[in-house]
Amino acid sequence: MPFDSLALKKIELARSDITSRLTGLHDIVRGRHPLVHRIALVLYEADSDLLRTFASSSDKGETLQHYEVHLAAVPSLRALAREHVSRVIDNLDLALRQNSPHTLWLKAQAYRSSYTVPVYSGDHLTAFLFFDSRELHAFTSEVASDLDVIADILAQLYQLRLAAVNTLVGAVDVAKGLARIRDVETGRHLERMAAYSRLVAASLAERLGLSDEFVEYLHLFAPLHDIGKVGIPDRILLKPGRLDDEERLCMQQHVSVGVQLARNIIADLGIDNDLAAAVMLNLVAHHHERGDGSGYPQGLKLADIPLEARIVAVADVYDAISSQRPYKPAWTEEECVAELRREAALQRLDPVCVEALIAAKEERLRICNQLSDEEVAAPAAPAAA
Fold this sequence. Notes:
With 385 residues, the protein is of the alpha+beta class.
């Protein structure tokens, strides 16, 4: 089986997601209103003012994925959000004159009318729901009234999922705080490697068939990878210099500690069969595996390591070598690229993920500069993991 196909299969088998639930509701909607050909959920991130595609369902299976735009750049949607109102467009060709990627995509798929509903958590905008049809004037007042009920159900579904994920993220944030306190990796390492992870996943999304939902969860949970270090004694975790064999074995136990912590959080939230839980657990359990079998705890070969863990491993290594540390200077761009490719040639790092990160040079360097450490901690050489 080709490498990419195997990676895709692993992701497809990984748990339920919002898209599958939205598809089920779409089937119900079309039973009553067959002209509703598409439903899409687009998330809003207030901190960055970004709208991001997240989940959708259509009768022909086509999807708009991996697209983002600032809400400020879409005045019509910004007005809906500000006024807390929905909008019917009877003729998209006449109403949407701009040539944004979203508009061009809608027209290319022959959508001709739409109904848009903003979604809120309290007074805060969290998403938009889009109902689209290939027929003109599909969204009469009667249809819109029915869809308001469906929109409320979808909003509740999303809010419940959002609450669960936020609880998970909240637990992760606490854990990340503990990890920062007890880890020698100071500064903004976790933020950078999470951003690099999202960059790699987004770059490979079309090639490997990765959903927007998967990419978002990878970004959210990437900083959790080393959380098990909270269970490692300070005499080992903070030891300057190299560890002896017994200490190294103890350090490696941070993976099993992290897995148990993750399982406890997942069980408490009752989301055992959820895509978010699968991504979180895979990152914690497999981020120290290496494709040549030299990693731990299972010594997995490359094709058997979950894709999310392969991505995080590349992001983690790149940040370690490209960042200044108390015990070393930052490597040059040329040195970083050479080292990543050397590790890929030895099959320790995933060559596909490595090349995706290298190819995204402009965005990668932007992340490096934007999230650079303002100061470096006092000199101390970290213990080898």
